[in-house]
Design brief:
The structure is a homodimer of 457-residue chains.
Chain A (H helix, E strand, L loop, with lengths): L1 H11 L1 E13 L5 E12 L2 E7 L8 E6 L4 E4 L1 E6 L15 H13 L4 H17 L2 E8 L2 H11 L2 E8 L4 H15 L7 E7 L7 H14 L2 E6 L3 H11 L3 H7 L7 E5 L5 H8 L5 E5 L1 H6 L7 H6 L3 E4 L12 H16 L7 H15 L17 E4 L12 H7 L6 E6 L2 E5 L2 E2 L4 H10 L1 H5 L13
Helix pairs in contact in A: 3-4, 3-15, 5-6, 12-13, 13-14
Chain lengths: 457, 457
């Protein structure tokens, strides 16, 4: 009796009800629209309905969150990060890119152990969940530890084990084995990539082998390319090809690919990418570009060519945080600035890139990045009642130009609460911070000559 | 007996003790240094000592704040704002500067009443206090209301009543009377300026009359000039002089002057300003410049010429917030970006501009912008324990690139607590927000042909 009663109850009872919230929606052309006073119903980790709010006593849900005037948005997506680098933040300031790599990043990274990466990934996930980021495309080392951290945190991630050509084909095979081992794990929250580091650290055969692994496994490729114009110039000088042309010649562009940065993409590269635009995305991490003086990705030209753009942070040694609100704001502001035209990158376009665009960029456009029936219940509740939003004449303007990470109150992934009213539910923040602090002195050491790679594009 | 006992007690008892905090100090050359585990003693609204922390039971203070690992910094200074424009935020998005003025700002401002300005000023002060801004140089209308709001909030402000030439000399006289009436009021927290709007809205005689008022009263001038290159080009085309040359010819540069924006300052203007550099400052509001596509102030050239630079936000219809942390971060990032050189604007320089530089810019360099005995006790306590700062390898880096307005916990002006542990103590936030919301519909109306001024530089 008891069991059948429970089953009968389950048939009519929703797993999760978000009652009477306002919702940011995107239509089929990615145009944002606002719907007020809605109920969001979630079952089995998916959104089942978004409809005009009904009196609370007419709803039956195992768990209810009261909207209380908050805005429900799709969870933010970080399309390019090296999350565990949070362990090194603040250690490489005010230095040019060659010294940044050769004197700081690659020597510092030689200190990292698998255990460090585990704590670093957890710390970065704390930071991102607290800022409303529910999905991250991470590109780093010791990725089994990273994957376990994602599993524990309850977040969503598209993970690639970064490989340098200098590490050899065995390491590439191991990275491919990682991609095979973890894809679809953690209730489907983990997807994987093949992640060769960059054309300037992987030779053509290595890139071809990486592409072959990706095709064999049916996964995409996440790679740095044409990060800044100096790399493009060096590639042209050395071999007469741009980094993007190298990607084409090595077959990297033949399947889904997420290119990080692309500040050195030339007009000819844009024309080349136009032919692959259906499965090519570029991750845009503007704070890093400003901080390292790298120039900017030619976003308008790439978008005109049909290339998908997503927002990222890059690692916290350049960014120096993992705050996608800041990436969103900087993207819009900088496009206006570079064009000296305030009409460029209007609110609707910025929002479309941040949400459905970024979802497509990480290969999850059919699952996340918009709130709609059938999509994963990856959503955040944002409080726009703060003085810095008031009076709230324009919600879309406030989302782009005013919203702070701390306005995010509640974070849900796959229908599961990761943060509620700013209280983390899956991770032990104090323990994670303490562990990260414990290793500070060791992590900050730089031993002359000891570095994982040499920057010489 | 009782009275003499109390007097005896007062002789040894400090008004306010901030016990065992870490402190950001600036030396005589504005170089930042960090001092850990300090006690800050405050008497009569001034800092009397900053010294190595002693056990709490050895201190006697009427009021104690426990540092608890927080960082004490001078209060932030907003060197250029139109604070009550918070009432209109979000109402003028994605439009070029001529339409921004003629179709949005000046029509919208025709809706503003003295009562609106009062609530708008209070709302903006809530936002700024919550973000750690203790001083603001405000440039607006109905400034008696603004001054009363500052008085009530307990903040510090340098106030100028904005005047257009079209309003006539009577209005200029009234603005000068305001400057005379309010300077030194609110326990010395209010200073005043003469505030002609700009060379393109005030003719030369009007500017001369404004300068004469400033000299007569012994106050400075706060004025917009060369806001963007189009204004400079228009001025050159119309009369063969740059806006900065107009300031010189009309005597504006003969005394202390705070120039807002200056994105249209030419190299020849820099040379001209070099001659007045001892008393000329430029307020830099980078978020506005990006959003309106105005270009950037030539900061490096101005600093090389000895001109003081301060950070501002401008009004919230362009910014769209009043967050000086964001101005600080954008200034540093954009200087690196424009120069394509990450070594430009290192941490120490950014901090020196944000604090002692901004204090000088608003004419208060002898009172605020640094924590030292004899300076006003205008200080904030910032919590750097958040995940987005961890592990805290570099405090100065975190202050420039990671700190959020919400990291500010406690705000003190003239030794008085305005916010403690993020609870506002002088202003009724709920009432102020409710009042601002009440007028939203009326404030958002634009009546064709009804505007306070025409933009035609």
């Amino acid at each position: 009796m008891r069991a059948s009663f429970k089953n009968a109850q389950r048939e009519t009872m929703t797993d999760l009800l978000i009652h009477n919230c306002h919702v940011l929606l995107f239509d089929a052309e990615d145009r944002p629209t606002l719907a007020r006073n809605q109920d969001i119903l979630v079952d089995g980790g998916r959104i089942t309905a978004i409809e005009r709010s009904r009196p609370f006593d007419e709803r039956q849900a195992a768990e209810t969150i009261h909207g209380d005037g908050q805005w429900a948005l799709p969870g933010l997506i970080n399309c390019h990060a090296h999350v565990p680098m949070v362990l090194l933040r603040g250690l490489a300031e005010d230095v040019p890119i060659d010294r940044w790599f050769n004197e700081f990043i690659w020597p510092l990274e030689s200190n990292l152990t698998a255990e460090d990466v585990s704590w670093g990934m957890l710390l970065g996930l704390v930071e991102m969940i607290e800022a409303g980021v529910t999905t991250v495309a991470d590109h780093y080392f010791f990725m089994d530890e990273a994957a376990r951290a994602v599993q524990e945190a309850g977040a969503r991630a598209a993970l690639g084990w970064a490989v340098f050509g200098s590490q050899g084909y065995e390491q590439l095979d191991a990275a491919a084995a990682f991609a095979e081992r973890w894809r679809g794990q953690a209730e489907g929250r983990i997807t994987t990539w093949i992640a060769p580091h960059a054309p300037y650290t992987c030779d053509d055969d290595f890139l071809r082998a990486a592409a072959a692994h990706a095709r064999r496994l049916g996964v995409g490729i996440h790679i740095h390319a044409a990060e800044e114009m100096g790399q493009t110039e060096a590639s042209l000088a050395k071999r007469g090809l741009t980094p993007i042309q190298v990607l084409e010649q090595t077959g990297i562009l033949d399947g889904p690919v997420l290119i990080a940065h692309g500040c050195g993409i030339l007009p000819r590269d844009v024309e080349l990418l136009r032919r692959y635009a259906g499965h090519v995305a570029v991750a845009h991490c503007p704070k890093t570009y400003l901080k390292l003086g790298m120039g900017l990705t030619p976003l308008q030209a790439l978008r005109e060519a049909g290339v998908t753009i997503g927002l990222g942070t890059d690692g916290a040694v350049s960014n120096n945080t993992l705050d996608i609100w800041e990436s969103l704001r900087l993207m819009a502001l900088l496009q206006k600035h570079e064009a000296r035209n305030p009409e460029v990158m209007p609110l609707a376009e910025a929002l479309a890139i941040a949400w459905p665009g970024s979802a497509r960029a990480v290969g999850l456009g059919d699952r996340v990045g918009r709130l709609a029936p059938g999509y994963c219940a990856d959503l955040i509740l944002v409080d726009l009642s703060g003085a810095h939003h008031q009076p709230l004449h324009s919600v879309t303007s406030s989302l782009v130009y005013n919203t702070r990470a701390t306005d995010v109150q509640t974070v849900i992934v796959n229908g599961r609460l990761l943060m509620r009213d700013r209280r983390l539910l899956t991770l032990d923040r104090a323990e994670i911070v303490a562990q990260a602090r414990n290793s500070m002195e060791r992590l900050a050491q730089r031993v002359p000559g000891r570095q994982i790679q040499v920057y010489q594009p």
